[in-house]
Amino acid sequence: MQLYSRTLGRCIAAALCAAVLLPGCGGDKKAGEDGKSLDFSRQDAFPSTYSMTQSRPVLIRGATLLTGTGEQLDDSDLLLEDGEIARIGEGLKAPGDALVVDGEGKWVTPGIIDVHSHLGNYPAPAIESSQDGNEMTSPNTAEVWAEHSVWTQDPQFALALAGGVTTLQILPGSANLFGGRSVTLKNVPGRRVQDMKFPGAPYGLKMACGENPKRVYGGKGTAPSTRMGNVAGYRSAWIAAGKYKKKWDNYRENGGEIPERDLQLETLAGVLDGEILVHNHCYRGEEMAIMMDIAREFGFQISAFHHAVEAYKVADLLAENKVCAAMWADWWGFKHEAFDMTEANIAIVDQAEACAMIHSDSAVGIQHLNEEVAKAMTAGRRAGFDIQPKDAVVWMTLNPARALGIEEQTGSLEKGKMADVVVWSGNPFSVYTQVEKVFIDGELMYDRADGARQPRSDFELGILDAEGERL
Questions:
Q1: Is residue 95 exposed (0-12), middle (13-18) or buried (19+ Cβ within 10 Å)?
Q2: Which helix (H) or strand (E) holds 53?
Q3: Structural domain contains residue 141
Q4: Which CATH number does the domain housing residue 320 bear?
Q5: Domain presence at residue 59
Q6: CA nearest 178: which of 226, 235, 259, 234?
Q7: For residue 276, what are the domain limits?
Q8: pLDDT tens digit string along 175-203?
Q9: Which residues of the chain fall below pLDDT 50?
């Protein structure tokens, strides 16, 4: 994705990329010669090659830590070793070769995770030839994978990094009932998308309800053209996926002739097997309720509703069904289904003990998700809820990790987790605060005070000099 400005020297770029692009973890499952070990998620088809080796330990000393677990630790130390969070406490000793960061007056959070991004699929510059996020050729395009459209040189990745984003899910667009597979990326340099893929992260399936699919296909004079047509389309697809899964289950158990592979049904069967997580674009409360009924009918779990402007109306159902809601702080009114909103939406879902989070769906919004959380926290307080920074930070860290199925690896400052860490100049929910440093797996990937640690994409080389001025 990103290499450093050529004025910094190709040797620096090569050193950084060597640290990032070493062969890494991919899916462990392999399809045997007889196909019996085939898994529907096909995680071995395009395996992650991401790897990060921490060049030296890091000690952040005397900062205010928002752990993402509901704690605020004042005047505390954080030690990063071997790419992991090693210790949290006071008066920690720094190894001899450690990078020591003076945390006085600073705040530290886990890396920000955005569950809804289109970076790389809708890159900058926004010209028609590079807009690859929506396969608007059929209501069901579950066979396409978003990662196969990611342009790793998109300059917007670096801008997101400067905003503290360490992990992001790239989704197909919302024109279709089934838009295709998503991919979860670490926000690091990479020549190819596999160099950025979060090791072991489950794939997602993008679904969409409401206005978009019925408008796109109704406008073409084909089905669906109504919301009831949308639902019929979902159910027909899941019936077909159930039959496909049954064929493969029978083959695995009893042998015989190998069933013919179907890329579309393979993705849907992966959902039914629990290997692929459903991320559902859905605005209206009653439609979310319908989608949860469909999930119950066919035996799969919805991981998160995205946009979810009316999530506050069904917050209790979200909690009961263990479904997350990814929401904006205050986007509304740009179409009918986005009209009946409240700025307290995130807070209400959170207070119902459902899994609430912020998301961007925007190359600009992803650069300041901390400010979006601040707006949502303030709206919740106006609504009468006692929400503190230690509570709200979860909306941009641990809860998104849960929705992506990576909460055991990242999303909070806990011993043994990935050292994805952001150092802020002050309270991250103040408009006067800036990101100062970003660590990914313990490696310093962004430093506001060091131009050598401010990535530029290869696409920008020759356009920007080392100081960011145009040549």
A1: middle
A2: none
A3: yes
A4: 3.20.20.140
A5: yes
A6: 234
A7: 2-460
A8: 999 999 999 999 999 999 999 999 999 99
A9: 1-35
